Amino acid sequence: MLSIITIFLVIIVCLIAVLISRQKEARQASENVYNMAFYELVDYVQNVETYLAKSLISSTPEHGAETLTNVWREANLAQAYLSQLPIESQELENTERFLNQVSDYSYSLSRKNIYNDSLTEEDLKNLRDLHSYSVELENTLNQLSDDINSGRVKWNELNNKGQVAFAQQVSTSSLDGFSNLEENFHEYSGLIYDGAFSEHLTGAEKKGLTGEDIDEEAAKQKTIEFIGNNNIKEIESLGFSENATIPEYNFSVKASSEDNISISVSKKGGHIVYMNSNRDVNTEIISQEEANEKGKQFLSNHGYKDMKETYYLKQDGIVTINYAYTENNVVVYSDLIKVKIALDNGEVLGLETTGYLNNHTKRDTTKVKISKEEAKKTLNKDLNIQSEGLAIIPTEFKTEILCYEFKGKVEDKEFLVYVNAENGREEDILIVTNTPNGTLTM
Fold first, then answer.
1. CA 7 from chain center: how many Å?
2. What sign results for the dihedral spanned by CA atoms 404, 408, 410, 415?
3. SS3 of 394, please?
4. Theoretical Cys-Cys bridge with 113: which of 61, 139, 246, 265, CB 3.0 to 4.6 Å?
5. Residue 46, Cβ neighbours under 10 Å: how many?
6. Is a pLDDT exceeding 70 seen at residue 178?
7. How many CB atoms lie within 10 A of CB 251?
8. What pTM was computed for the model?
9. Cα(320)–Cα(220) distance, rounded to whole angstroms?
10. What number is the average pLDDT over the span 93-109?
11. Mean pLDDT over residues 298-317, rounded?
12. Which segments of 347-425 are extended strands (E)?
């Protein structure tokens, strides 16, 4: 028995030794991965600083476009490696914001150079400010690099203990460096221009979300008003989603028809953000034109006036239609609402207002500086125009552009071409795909 116990203990000790060894190897492997990500981050931040410096003395739009495109690329790569580090702190959050903003700003200025426009004094001042900040960031990351090389910073501990461990492990010089970055960042973070470098990239203002905050009981009443008290058999609260794109109260409703309805109401203003009811639709009686009108009437009855149907998708007897807001005969594609309609009886089964609540505001639709005929001169001569008008389109930078919208065909393909109404630039081209189940763009 003693021999058996001894052998058993030896086996346990060996297993523990193997586990500890493997744990050390895994820890070291993760440390190596984090170290690689950090040093790649440092290299790309150095490249950002270098290319920003070059952009300040570039004398031709062609070379300026190339240099600024390099800034955009290096800043994006720096962000990718920064996201791999196990640090959640205000210091590196500001670093991420800076890289995001300098990336978008440089890309926008590169487009300006591509159009053979010289940078303005304000553009150059912004670049000088950003370059100054990039130098500070580079120096601070180099100080943090010294902490890592000395063994003071251990990534795995940062991963487990987060911000507290970061403050305890880094040197005073590194903390002072990040503190200076935090103080100076506010001077640069407010740079706003007609393009990508806008605060709403990280802190989106919900322009269409009006009204005062409401509590859950008021949100419940909004739900009852929206669906109709006579149509509700039972209503249950599913809690509050604080971290949703729009903070909202969620409810589950059993309708008098026994259908289950999910609905979300915004905390601010009590707007219906989302509503969905799933039921089988076995027949299609309602035409697409009738569905368009029913959806438009439904929106109007709930306070969404001047909405125009754009594209739709039909599936399993249900059509989902995108409606865009119109102002002075200008289609505003940023303010979108999706409506889901049953084609057996025209009942509205779903609603999503996120786009509208995020973007709806009063626009200036008078910034037309070129005529429609001048805009047409930029079009491909083979485009057979079928319709034309004005539209406000969103950009990838979450800004908006007032454009002429030309719909036409080249051979058997249908296109939408958007020409800037202020300067005549071709801003975007979409291919329109018409299928038996819908009209889509790509």
1. 61
2. positive
3. strand
4. 61
5. 18
6. no
7. 23
8. 0.65
9. 26
10. 79
11. 93
12. 348-352, 384-394, 400-410, 413-420
